[in-house]
Amino acid sequence: MNISGKNIILTGASSGIGYELSGMIARQKCNIALLSRRKEITDKIASALAGTGSKILSLKCDVTQKEDITYCFSKVLEEFGSLDIAILGSGVSFRHTVEDFNSETAKKTFDVNVFGITNFLEVLVPYYIKKKEGMIVGVSSLADGRGFPKSGLYCASKAAVTLLLESTRVELKKYNVKVLMVKPGFVKTPMTDKNDFKMPFLMPASKAAKIILNGIEKEKRIIQFPLPTAMGAKLLRLLPDGLFDFIAERTQ
To answer: How far is residue 90's CA from residue 2's CA, in Å, rounded to a whole number?
Structure first.
């Protein structure tokens, strides 16, 4: 699929992979709406990309607030006339131990990572079904297959995202609506900069964005990278629980 001329929504556009994607997409001469809680940053991004030939819209959007999403969706339709692709990339991660576990952290994690997507699906799905075409690109993680120590909430939220997108992909196929799932490994972003552990095969956000954009153009159902981490994640899912526990205990 050639994304040139497409109307696109991108959430989490103010930093990390979203920031890199915004520039790459804009250079394809698309209409793109940059959504973020930090509108002052997306305003600057939009200004910097003004000479690309794309129409760029900067909108404040907290994906945990349904009224923000409803407003942004209506604004995009008003400005662009229609929507072709929604890239849902907002995400958070909080390291925690069982000793400092609390439900408030759990709520923050699931509100952004899971309900940030479901809130968008509530407006996207009826629109795309009526239109009988469209694309949803949801960001999960290669951490969706096991409960890694000190990352249980993040892993659980991404497992929920993976299964939700998988189910939605199957159901929307008959309406000619494509659902793509992005499953990154470790990518250098402000979110991973907080990690206090070794991150194998850490990838620059710019390289991750290129892989994602290429996957969108090829309409790949699952865009997962880097290859060694993807293969390792598959292997970990196949391990007996006892062996996984033994390994995980020694990598805390």
So the answer is: 24
Q: Give the tens place of pLDDT for each residue, 182-210.
A: 999 999 887 787 777 788 899 999 999 99
The one-letter amino acid at 49: L
Taking CA atoms, 85 is separated from 24, 44, 52, 203, 224, in Å, by 15, 23, 19, 25, 19
The DSSP letter of residue 10 is E
Nearest to 31 by CA among 104, 84, 96: 84
Q: How far is CA 34 from the centre of its chain?
A: 13
Q: Dig out the tokens for 138 from the structure.
A: 């949801």
Contacts of residue 173, Cβ cutoff 8 Å, sequence gap at least 6: none
Dist. CA 12–CA 68, nearest whole Å = 14
CA distances from 45 to 2, 59, 161, 224 (A): 23, 12, 28, 27
Which amino acid makes up residue 217?
Answer: E
In whole angstroms, give the CA distance from residue 141 to residue 152: 13
Tokens for 172?
């929307």
Backbone dihedral region for residue 150 (phi beyond 0: left; psi -120 to 50: alpha; all else: beta): left
**Ramachandran angles phi, psi of 49, nearest 5°:** -100, 10
Structural contact between residues 236 and 146, judged by C-beta atoms closer than 8 angstroms: yes
DSSP strands (E only) in 41-130: 55-60, 85-88
Q: How far apart are CA 247 and CA 252, in angstroms?
A: 9
Backbone angles phi, psi at 4, to 5 degrees: -60, 130
Name, of 47-56, 217-226, 239-248, the range with top average pLDDT.
Answer: 217-226
